[in-house]
Give the backbone structure.
Amino acid sequence: MRLVNIGICGLGTVGAGVFNVLGRNSQQINSRANCDLVIAQLGARRDNPDCNTADTNVTRDIFEVAKNPNIDIVVELIGGTDVAYELVMTALDNGKHVVTANKALIAQHGMEIFAAAEARGLMVAYEAAVAGGIPIIKALREGLSGNRINWLAGIINGTTNFILSEMDSKGREFADVLTEAQEKGYAEADPTFDVEGIDAAHKLVIMTSLAFGMPLSLDGIFTDGITRLEPQDVSYARELGYAVKHLGITRQTDQGVELRVHPTLVPETCLIAGVNDVSNAVMVNADAVGTTLFYGPGAGSEPTASSVIADIVDVARAMNADADTWVPALGCQSSALQPQKIMDIQDIETSFYIRFSALDQPGVLSDITGIMANAGISIEAIIQKEQPVGEDYVNVIILTNVTKERLLDAAVENIEQLETVRGSVTFIRVEHLDQ
Ligand code: HSE
């Protein structure tokens, strides 16, 4: 059989998974790739006790791997964007195909990397960059290529979903769950990337480019994380029949493309509301197929390795074929990508959950509903919670019908100015994901 030499850079959580699964399943993987895949060199700053590398050529210099004349495919698993960018460009300059799991790198530098690869007649594959073990890149780029995609919405950060699930089902503290996610290897090196929505933003931008044929760009994306989310809102949402999920949403509209990452109320009856723990799920709505749901583990060593290895197999098989038959990195040639306007979050229309603390006295609710009516916002449901003994203030929770965020913001400002309302108004966007 033909020999294809792989160079792996990075032996952290994902690198160890790739190393071990490639070894364990080598027979099946080689027969699927129709070649003998060999780890010709491994570049890692330190050993990983989860891997037995005694029979592997290991170097502490990852750039040695990128320049190694025997290597066909360089697998970048070091993370980050500075050294990883240099490493990938060096690999391409040295005529290597590249497989990467690095969403930040692809979201920020994908256009330059793909252009460099195209110019040199090389492949860059990045299935593991989005939603861990779920083959969502291949699904968007190839499986759904006959469709016009209308929108997609996904739970695309395992750490955040794990934290929200534990807070919801076990009432655990945020910090305590985050530590567990870090120990399990789900979280980014800097976990603020997870909990502030930056990691999800990177993944959403990649899926948006594939879905709408746009160049990769983080410009204009609205990003909010879960750090300001209060347990009481998760529990009020449950009372109203909703789960709170951290979603990445993109939608093609007549006014441009919606591109946003934020905590969202979704009806408990929606399949995505039942996606818990480290699992990810992406719902895609498209004109021919309707709505599809892709579900699976979104982070972790071997689930992510599963996607990396699928890319290695794809690249190894395609190396023998005419370059014209290769599937382009973003589904079409770079020259065919069309930039589109990203909508301002203030112009986006959605329903809202709002909560505030108001004096329990006659006329307060009518002031509030009056403000909503003047803003043209229709109320879907309203709950006033009984106040604890000795408390003059009660929590009021309102669910609105669909409205423009600009109008909601103005109404919130007016509610906050009422003397009978204490503190600020909390609001969370609501999505029904049914059309
Ligand atoms: N930190 C990421 C997550 C890893 O929690 O989803 C997978 O991209």
Notes: The chain has three domains: 2-132+301-336, 137-297, 348-430. DSSP finds 14 helices and 17 strands in the chain. Residues 132, 157-159, 186-188, 194, 199, 298-299 surround L-homoserine (CB under 6 Å). The first helix runs from residue 13 to 24.
